[in-house]
Design brief:
Layout (H helix, E strand, L loop, with lengths): L8 H11 L7 H32 L15 H7 L2 H9 L2
Helix pairs in contact: 1-2
Length: about 90
């Protein structure tokens, strides 16, 4: 079975701007464009992962009460729920 991944909103926007010819860059502009789009993708990744973490914490007890996370720091919870792995699997990164 093929692993189907999603496209983030930033990736969708960049792709569609380029496909529709709305972005035409000189060689000098291309480096800055690449830096800005990479930064936007990283910011969006952090927002997606934070939203997942916040949702997990709001649920009160984690997934079905399996994990007692009271008093844990966000990094510990994020690592425990495999937040980075979730993002990479969902968005194919």
């Amino acid at each position: 079975m093929e692993n189907k991944t999603s496209m983030t909103a930033v990736e969708w926007l960049i792709r569609n701007l380029m496909l529709n010819g709305l972005i035409r860059l000189t060689k000098d502009q291309h480096k800055l464009y690449k830096e800005l789009t990479d930064l936007a993708k990283q910011m969006e990744k952090e927002q997606i992962m934070q939203a997942r973490l916040d949702g997990f914490k709001v649920s009160g007890e984690g997934f079905n009460g399996e994990y007692p996370y009271e008093g844990w720091a966000d990094d510990g919870i994020s690592n425990s729920i495999n937040n980075e792995k979730y993002y990479n699997k969902t968005y194919g990164k």
